[in-house]
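Hi there. Long-time user, first ticket. I'm pasting a complex I've been working with (about 264 residues overall). I'd like to know whether the download I got is complete or cut off, because the file seemed smaller than I expected. Thanks.
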Amino acid sequence: MSHERRLRFKTLVMVLLMVVCANLGDLMLKRGMLQIGAVQMTPYGIWLALLSTIHNATIWLGILFLIAFTFCYMTAVSWADYSYVMPAGAFGYALQTLLAVVILHEAVNAQRWFGVILIVVGVLLVGQTHPSTTTPKPAAS
Amino acid sequence: MTRLVLMLVFFICCSTGGEIAMTHGMKQVGEPESFRPVALLRFIGKAISSGWIWFALPLLAASFYSLLILLSWAPLSVVIPASAFNYVVGTFGAKYLLREQVSPKRWMGVIMVCIGVTLVLLT
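Hi, the file is complete. Here it is re-exported in full:
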C-alpha cells in the first residue's frame, strides 16, 4: 500500500472510531443530564450540578466514550492535519441526528435536516483534500 | 437565547483553543510506531509528558463542562450541530497558528459547514 493510501486509510479508521465514540459519549451525556435536570446558573446551582454529574453512572459512561474519542483524536492529529481531522469527524452529525430522533424522540424539522446535510457535504469536500500538509515528526520511539 | 449564545461562544473558544494546543503537542510527539500495546503505551507516555497537552487539558475540561450545561438547556440536535462552528474558528487556527495549508476546496467545505450550522441555529 502506498504511503498516501496508507495515510488516508488509517486516518479514515481513526475518524470512524472518533465518530462512534463521540456519538455514544454525547448520547450518554444527554441522557445523564436529562436525569439531572436544567442547571441553575448560580454558584450553588453549578456546584449542585457538579455533584450530581459525579454521582451519575450514565455521565461516567459518556465520559469513558469521550476519553476513547480523545485518544483516537490525539492519534489521528499526530500524523494528519487538524483542519482535516476536525471536519472529517463531523460525519457523525448524520448519525447524531438519527440517534436523537430514534432514541430520544426529539423533533427535527426540514430546515434543520437541510443544515445537517450541508454540514455533511462540506465535510465530504474537506475529506477530498490531502490529510497532511505539514511535515510530520517521525514515529514516537 | 442570549444566555445560550454566550455559553456557545465560551464553549467554542475553549474547545478550539484546547484542540489546537493538543494538535501542536501531538505533532511534537509524533505518530505511534505501531498499534501494538507496548508501542501505544509508549506513545501515551510521550504524549502525557508534553507540556502542550497539559496546557490543552484545562481548556478542554472547561469546554466539556460548558457542553454539559448546554446539553441541559437545549435539545441534542441543536447543541451538537451548533458546536460545528468550531470548524470555522479551528480552520483559521490551523492556518495561522499551526501553519497548515488550507486549500480552496477545504475552505469551501468549511464554509458549507458554517452555512449548515447557521441554518441549524435559526430553527
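A couple of notes from our side: Residues 2-122 of chain B form one domain. Chain B touches chain A through 63 residues (CB under 8 Å).
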